[in-house]
Records
---
Amino acid sequence: MSNYFDFISQELLGKLRQVKVYIKKHNPTIGLLTEEILRDFLRKHLPKVVSVEQGFIIGNNNEMSRQCDIIIYDSQAYAPFYRINDVVVVPAESVLAVIEVKTSITKKIFHDAINYFFELRNFGSARTYLFIFNSLNIRKIGDFLNSYKHPGDYHEFDWDTFQWLPDEITGVNSSFHLKKDMVIDDRDMMGYTSIYYEGLDGDEISALENFFLSIYGVVENHIKTNYFRSENMKKREDYNKRKLHSILAIPLFHM
């Protein structure tokens, strides 16, 4: 069944590449198209318990989030408070994942994204993703993380401020899929790791496959906890028989 993951990753990559072919110089349009491609892909391939929309999240104190590019929420149990076309306002307790989409990345854009995810911590415990369409390499992403200016006198991430960061960061061209993790170095540290598998036709496929499997896993865990409550529910990633090829890491702070 690993061919399944090849096919769906190639499908997503092909649609993203078409944007580069036809829209070359208008970043706002590229950004809107990338968001819509990702939303449409996830609507097609995720279980129907969830809906994939853009919009806003309402917190427990009726405060409203900034606009979210992609919200994945349980539409089986929760109806939106408001909807116009595909823009919704949904309660925080319904939201499983939030994806922020960037056309390209600079230090300022990346730091603004950190601030955005910090604000989202007031709106529940959804898993957070940063998706970068034209990314820089992992080394530059590490530089952006380490150059972030924290409030006050302390200028490095720790256990508390680590929670500000997106749980996962996906880059396409340069390509990677980073997840918060323990980094084994001379001393144990916390940071991000990116896994690559053998037998893939490029890092883009590996990144997109990991991106999809991660989001699918979030939905599966929600279904298992709230609907089926079965220990025998087979996970989608169980069908993936890839062999590990390599791991890259960004260490951020000592444990």
---
Amino acid sequence: MRPVAALAIGALALAGLTACDATGATGATTSSSLTAEQAAALLDSDFYDTSLVHSITIDFDDDDYQAMLDAYSETGDKGWISATVTIDGTVFEQVGLRLKGNSSLRGIGSDSTADTDDDGADTGAPAAPDSGDGSVNTDDPETLPWLIRLDKYVTDQSYQDRTEFIVRGNTSESSLNEAVALELIGLSGLATEKSAAVRLSVNGGDDALRLVMESIDDDAWNDDAFEAGGSTYKADSGGDYSYRGDDPAEYTDVFDQKTGDDDLTPLIDFLDFINNSDDATFAADLGDHLDVDSFATYLAMQDLTANTDDIDGPGNNSYLRYDSETGLMTVVAWDANLSFGGMNGGMGGGFGGDGGDRGAPPDGATAPDGEAPDGAAPDGAAPDGGPGGGDNILATRFLADSTFSALVDTATTTLTASLYDSGDAQDVLDRWTALLTDQASDLVPEDTLQEESDTIAAYLTAAE
């Protein structure tokens, strides 16, 4: 780790310190709304300690910011700028900062139909017609989704062994839905990303409550999540799981390799099998290509968390992890901010085995704004998996096979008992709700927090 300095407790809480800023900004300031007690607790704490609301401040040159927005508006490219970032009182300079996401950036720029992969390259495809991840306002950069990369310009710069931090977009004010969903995914035994509730301030502006999470693109996350070596591939939102031949160049617009040796061969072989094997071969040999038990658990958890934006949702939201020792692929869960019905303005969700009644909120839950009544899909939306979704070849073939679909049913029954009937899921929700009520009610009103918590609780009850 190569931080510039650790700030003194009193200054962190009360005054805020400035630091030399290579971007030309006036200086790094700490959150003005932290109490001395909160600031003291944050110093030297684990950033993903969920008993605390953490603090991140970002400072950058306004001209750099505007140039970045102009470039995104004109081309869809997500360019990097340099910033000073303070994490729980530790200052880092020359940090890479760029916009993060696709649907979460709707409304920025004049061309909202162009689709880009998450590295900013134009895929040439229309953007997936989903509902977005909440409102964004470029005049209030603390509302935007961001990727913070500590080692973009300074080699080996990291914080607690992590080089990347993702500031998530969400349709709710609290982001409780994604925080709870991520933790439940981890309790199911699947690899998941840790998250932290954060007070985020940009260029001395007001604090906003945001959810910040680990990045699957981070080598350190992969090392912690998977025992064996291998490669991690991200499905781009403008692509699909189709087989496009054996030329790696044909996959550059649909998958990005994030970790491991630069080799798409395992991915291409896997896509060849799931697309081109006949049904008998698929049933007999899928276990030689995919961790089928893990995938059954994945599908069960996406349904149990009512996530309409999963592998068969509008953007193929998933990663594939190739284990070089076993030769198996694992589908890694990603993008849970539309879990539990997407909360306010989301796309709806529910429980129904293989993604059945995802359009209707459970009894007692409030339907998100703009949702079609009585569980009907919104205009133009597929009834399963959200608009443009419901047609991932792997999920479709897996669920069409009686043996594999039975694994999903078994996983759903087991996880319902262990997470929901046991009360563990409610305990997770209660803990997150109490945290935000106790430490962030100045950022989100208590009645809003309680309303959003109650909406999730209705989904948890419906799953029992």
---
Amino acid sequence: MSSDGADAHLRVDFPLDIEPARLERLLWVLVGLSLVGDVVTTFVGLHLGLAESNPVARSAIDGYGLAGMLALKAFAIGVGLVCRPLLPRVYRPIVPAGLALPWTVAVVINLALITAVAGVGV
């Protein structure tokens, strides 16, 4: 197969080919959604008899309930916001990505456990 230089000017637009500022805004929205999802699914799971696996979060919840969990989340966001200006603009989306990724994974795991315990879909 020969390309004959035809693809030399081919431009592929990838879904994440967006400016860093817009990407960062979208990731902050994901942070908010994943934070709410994590808090809600955690407390639903606890209500169903599941246990919090993160020892720091477990301690905060055991000691202060929802306020403890929200304080923990606020602290994490605060650290991210304090560190954000230390990064060049192009790398700033890594801050919300670093917050949203584990919380989104936690939501998925929580939903799977809740589904298994509650017998949803069985």
